[in-house]
Amino acid sequence: MAYWRSTITHLALLLGVLVAAPASGQATVQPKIVIQTLPGSIDVAAWTPDERYLLTASGVTREFMIWDVSRRLIIDRLRLPGTVNAIGADMMRLTTMTVSADGRTAVIGGLVADTEAESRVAGRVYRIDLATRAITTERVAAPAGAKLEDVQSWFMAIGVLASQEASPEMSIEQATALLPQLPVSPSGRYTLRRTDKGFEFVEQGQGLPFASTAMPADVASAALAPDGRRIAFIRTAEDQVNTTIEIFDTLTARYGAPVTLEGDYQSVVWLNEREFLAHGNEAYLTESDDEDAKTPLPPLAIVDGTTGQLTKTIEARCFPVSLGQGVFVGAGIGNCRAPLSRDRALSVFDPVANKWEAIPDLGLKADDTITVITAHQPSGRVAFAVAHADTSGTIYAVDTGDGNLDIGRAVDRGTIVTQLSFTNDGQKLFIGSNGVVTEWDLAKDSLRQLAGAALMPSFFASDGRNLLLAGPLQDGVGRVDLAGNQALPPLELSYAMSGGFLPNRPIFWAASGLGSLKLWDTRDWSPLLTTYLFSGSKFVAVTADGRYDTNLGPDADQFRWIVSDAPFQSLPAQTFMRDYFEPRLTQRLTDCTTARNCDQVLKPIPSIASLNRALPVTRITGVQPGEKPGTVEVRFELREGTANGKRSGIYNPRLFLNNRFASHTPDEPFTETETLEQWRELNRIPRQGDDGVYRYIFVEPIPTGGADRLTFSAYAFNEDRVKGDTATFTYIRPPIPKRKPRAFVLTIGVDAYDEPRLELNYAVADARLIADRLAAIAGYEMRHAMLAGAKRPDGSRQQVTREIINSALGILAGMEPGPAIQELAQAGIDASALDNATPDDIVIVSFSGHGWADPRGNFYLVPSDGKWADGEGTPDKSSLVSAATLTMWLRAIKAGEIAFIIDACHSGASVDSGTFKPGPMGDSGLGQLAFDKGIRILAATQAKDVALENAQLGQGLLTAALGKGLTPQGGPADLNSDRRITLDEWLRYAVQELPRLAKGAGVARGFTITQRPTAAAAKSAVQEPALFDFTNSVSPVILRGTP
Predict the structure, then answer these.
(1) Of 151, 713, 929, 947, which is the most exposed, with the fewest CB atoms less than 10 Å away?
(2) DSSP 448-508
(3) Which pLDDT tens digit goes with each residue over 24-40?
(4) Hey, what's the signal peptide range on this chain (predicted)?
């Protein structure tokens, strides 16, 4: 709860705000995501008369929440309106909350600091329509005897309880006594108890767990890279020993490895699209005896944001700013750590000499203190503020380039300059001091007070037309029209700590200390996207119309949904995943906003209100050993759900073992459906029992080795393909005979084709290289089989036909091995090592040869007898191996780990034909199976590109990268340098290495059968592979090293 301590500290600095004017509330609630992070603190609470809902409110965050009591989750959360155009956030104490007898209206009363009132406080009343969520605000007279100190001590009590740490001025017991007692529920069943999470429900003396314990990421500083791709943010530190910096890639929607720096770093700023600077920048009073003032500043740290590697450190200085090309300006340590140093000079860091050099002849006195610095890189100008011993001050602007600027401006005594920023052209300087914002025209040496106001602003940002400003004590991001010097409506984001304009994009961004980052379209200042950061390197990004991206699982509890026509129905996270989930949303949205083509890039989304939101209810009733050793019987029940007058229906129940797909019913794995009606017809459960309950038993093989604790889960879909809640069941495996783990390696390479123009040179070599690199895997009995379509010495061809590929995969998938092995032997293939795979086994399949994707993105492997007559525009699909067929076999394979390597043209389309979304969609494709079953699929190219083979390497490029990564002794695929190479590491290494290999000469593998050979080959000048791995976990399969 480090955030709450810092927030309370900041708010305690407020001495007053402007009078709170009446304000209209928020509009009727629209379909939206409701974040489930706990409140941290509450002032007051009230129950609805039926005891179904609890209402809570906080004056610190001005947040009002509606809770579902039975499930202990947040139905909705709203911001209570604050003071209009205030200097600083409201300092508000909420004292009462009541609910009307009909349960329709909540009324909240409190006190707010008000410098215009004689007592310096005023009363405030909020009235909330609980059905529409409309809020009205009224300023009223403060109760007799009320004073500002009451509000200040209230805030101190909230801070003590939020941190559960006593302060020198107040104990936990005193804080508890100062705040109002939380109410008992109408029936007396529940009480409420204040905690460091805000509160907890209590029943019969026992605290009840919340549905979610999600916590926002404690953010001390955050910044977005100039290209909008990466977000770097510093976690709020619990101590000053180490600092963790997270890097989130918006393009891949993944976090990089956290960067850990030794020392107390408090600010991060991007230097360019790759590198950022981290430094400890907090200013302490010069003569402070506080222990923090005696804590040494850590060195400046320059980090490569693309790799997370620390690339350089520089001796520490206070308030460092960059002039570009490795040049920095900073103030001596004595300016922010007076007990540690007498150095108060302004210095420049010379990257060639690798040292700081003081700027001479500035005329600073020994007792002057530099308090803030800013720089304008293009011109080399630097501005800084100096506080004098008599509390007066001076702001200086100097030119470190041609030296034609050297002026100063005196400021009045008692003025505290907290922020400086140049305009884009470097001709003017914005100054923030004592809540006032001033523009200094450096050429004319004239000042203009601007309409904007901010108390202790943390940033200024300007595009030449607008000035935006905010800080930890501001409720929103202020805007000023510079031409007319008019205050514009603020942007909604509380406690913004950093922000700026993205270069060459009509986008403004700002980051909040509450753990969120928001984007706006600067053409009309409409909100584009809000990204919520959670602890544990998790996020969800959502647009105003409900599109979202996340790295949370489909059953995430960090967020839920509400819809306008059912404002008290809280829906699980996955409810609207099919239509509203948009992978790589941040990058796609920033790109299409810039190009003004979002209508074409982002497909229209249906109205949530028209969607059936009644969800089927699944329950696993038991798991018991099956008749066959190493199997279990899983029994479950399903019931239709009802909501808003609709019934859910029950469709396509699915069973998972340890979060991996195991079985489903009806079992139609290869039937593709194009319409919702077709899907319903295929997946409808035909009938339920007489009591309305559908009962089913799955018989499933289980692993005989590894952990005895197994988790089964199941869910079903409603008639609109909306996933129901997931039911889980923990099964403790009894002692059973152990199977010997086997590693099946099936390598397929096709050089020789019936169509001579399709012949390749190195596909069979690829199959041999993969087999060689996987000759042995520790802990597994090796089972190798190779399908090599090559020319024989007599000129004949070894066939690898569609039937041969299907037979080999079918053996692994459960076909009777004997007859299939005999048929393959008659075709010249030794498949005697193949067998039905079990959950104790691993399966690795590779294919090298031709691949083809039709105009709709459907992918096919081309076997040796694939038919594509010369002159025909498309091949005979019936002679190819479709992705649907591959899906059928891979779904039936019961192995614990499966990897599929495809070194062929357009192989990315095998998983992603352009519409695939990694989530529980109930689709029939290979991408859906990869998500559900945890299959790792490495494709040589993106969906529209060709794969290359290289004569010098004698391989396809993907296979060459794999071969390079894994050697008998280990190899460079050990990405984390732990002397072990896991299966997923090996595949990820190939993704990194292949583009480097692709810079050499290469021949398109399959260019003769692409529909646009010239364009495709040209685009693949640098081949880019794709790894589809949705497991978010490290593979247990160790290819090199000790298990």
Answers:
(1) 713
(2) EEEEEE-SS-SEEEE-SSEEEEE-TT-EEEEEEETTTTEEEEEEEEETEEEEEEPTTSSEE
(3) 334 433 678 999 999 88
(4) 1-25
Query: What is the pTM for the complete model shown?
Result: 0.80
Tell whether the model's pLDDT for residue 116 goes beyond 70. no
For the ranges 6-20, 200-214, 533-547, the lowest mean pLDDT is seen at 6-20
Q: How many domains does the chain have?
A: 3
From 125, 154, 185, the end of a domain falls on 185
Contact 311, 302 (CB under 8 A): yes
Contact 267, 245 (CB under 8 A): no
Q: Strand pairing partners for 44?
A: 57
Cβ contacts of 173 within 8 Å, gap of 6 or more:
none
Cβ–Cβ < 8 Å for 574, 715: no
Direct distance between the N- and C-terminal alpha carbons of the chain, in angstroms, rounded to an integer: 39
- Do 72 and 178 belong together in one domain? yes
H or E stretch at 349: strand 346-350
d(CA 634, CA 68): 32
In angstroms, the CA 245 to CA 259 distance is: 5
Domain that holds residue 173: 2-185
**Structure tokens belonging to residue 327:** 């040049």
Query: How confident is the prediction for the chain on average, in pLDDT?
Result: 84
| Collapsed DSSP state (helix, strand, coil) of residue 553 | coil
Angle 717-719-725 from CA coordinates, rounded to 5°: 25
End residue of a domain, out of 713, 732, 751: 732
Q: Dig out the tokens for 765 from the structure.
A: 């070599």
| Average confidence (pLDDT) over 611-619 | 91
Q: Please report the pLDDT score of residue 29 as a whole number.
A: 37
The torsion of the CA quartet 930, 936, 937, 940, rounded to 10 degrees, works out to 150
In a shared domain, residues 761 and 846: yes
Which residue type does 1019 have? K
Query: 439: closest CA among 456, 455, 462, 470?
Result: 462
